[in-house]
Amino acid sequence: MSDLSRRKLITTGLAATAGALGLGVSARIAQRYGLIPPDHGGIYGLGETLTYASQRLLTRHSLAREFRSSQISKPPFANEIPPLNEAFKRLQAGGFADWRLSVNGLVARPASFSLDQLKSYPSHSQITQLQCEEGWSYIAEWNGVPLSHVLEIVGVHPQARYVVYFSIDPEWWESIDMADGLHPQTFLAYGMNGSELPVGNGGPLRVRLPRQLGYKSVKYITQLTVTDSLKGFGKGLGSASPEGGYAWYAGI
Amino acid sequence: MISHPRFYWGETGNVLTQPLFKLPIPASRALVPTGYGYVLPDQNGWSRYLHFQAAWAVVLTGLLYLISGLFTGHFWRNLLPRRADLSWRPFSIAIANHLRFKRPSEAEAWSYNVLQRLTYLFVIFVLFPLAIWTGLAMSPAFVSAVPATVTVLGGQQSARTIHFFVSLFLLLFLLVHVVMVCTAGFRSRMRAMILGRAGTRMERT
């Protein structure tokens, strides 16, 4: 083993120490700038953190691709929907007149919005792709109010870091960081292709987050909570997805 | 792939649109019409985590390999076909030897023949870059920053289809590679790969 000289041993040792120190320092910096996802633990945590951190640095303000109206998929594909519960059916029977979106957490003015209220704000539209982790996709025009508009109305505290959103289906909740929360294409969508948002596609109200996979665009939204930490929600992994084995950040 | 064993060309594709082709396997999701009466168990969660972690390993070690290969001249010296290789004769000899499962001679064990050189170049400079490119083209966040990644391929579903075939070729390469290593002498080839020494010379081990 004469190949393994003292010089080699010393340089390797120094490189390893520098590497370990570098990792430690970059972890600190990453934490400071919000580049660590809530599901950073476990054996896949390193890959998730690299993906989230690099995409957050690269895509903070970039806009999802928009398409021409001739590219809209006809008919729009409504994915499998979970069996809708009694609470949903009751609201559906009433034509969703009593549907409420409550907004709370780190906000100055917690509020509860009816669909009509949400529709009274300037309506925006986007023709974007909904891409499912399974492999299929479709393009539709989405009409709604940007989430940032609603957050502005309730007055988000400066220490806010995440928006957690809940479906009427208690099993389905997600969260996004403020870069996505305030992104101009993040919608509370109530319309699709010029009409009411069909129940199969998430009506009467769903999140649209075109820079992430479909499972982050939660259907049947009833509550938003603004927070500075995801620790108190579920198992603290950020959303229902990592609890079910899926990545929290789905920009892939 | 198992959750949606249908492949498309262009921007979009789902069970309501015409596929380019379908894989004759059952799916792990109930909504995909496969003709089989059952649904496979869903393993997408952990396999996606593993996939993207592995993608980082490929990208980072690949970069290291590329940089070191450029600096040491590995690509020109060992992988670029030699002038003498550029005729039919070395090709036909290499192919004939492969078909006879002939073990390499001592001289050959020290360098790559023309088939190996071309295959390795193809894997390193075509398949792996294409796998990474088409992978990024499927990321809605990445293409929001660099839209050309997907538009030059003709759409996200085209990227997925190309990604599938590239993975298939990489898998084929891996299988053939392992079989060749075994027929050429597993121990000596492994020693050559790990320690950089051909097994025919038994020195200081």
Describe this structure in words.
The complex is a heterodimer of chains A (252) and B (205). Chain A has 252 residues and is α+β, with helices and mostly antiparallel strands. Chain A has a single domain (65-243), classed as Oxidoreductase, molybdopterin-binding domain (Sulfite Oxidase, Chain A, domain 2). Chain A is built from seven helices and ten strands. In chain A, the strands form two sheets. Chain A has a five-stranded mixed beta sheet. The longest helix of chain A has 27 residues, at 6-32. The model of chain A has no long low-confidence stretch (mean pLDDT 93). Chain B has a two-stranded antiparallel sheet. The longest helix of chain B has 29 residues, at 44-72. Chain B has two domains: 1-42, no CATH class; 73-195, no CATH class. Chain B has eight helices and two strands; from the N terminus they run E-E-H-H-H-H-H-H-H-H. In chain B, helix 4 (114-137) packs antiparallel against helix 7. Chain B has 205 residues and is mainly α. The chains are: A alpha+beta (252), B mainly alpha (205).
Spell out the key features of this protein.
heterodimer, A: 252 residues, alpha+beta, Sulfite Oxidase, Chain A, domain 2, 5-stranded mixed β-sheet, 5-stranded antiparallel β-sheet, 7 helices, 29% helix, B: 205 residues, mainly alpha, 2 domains, two-stranded antiparallel ribbon, 8 helices, 58% helix, 2% strand, globular, disordered C terminus
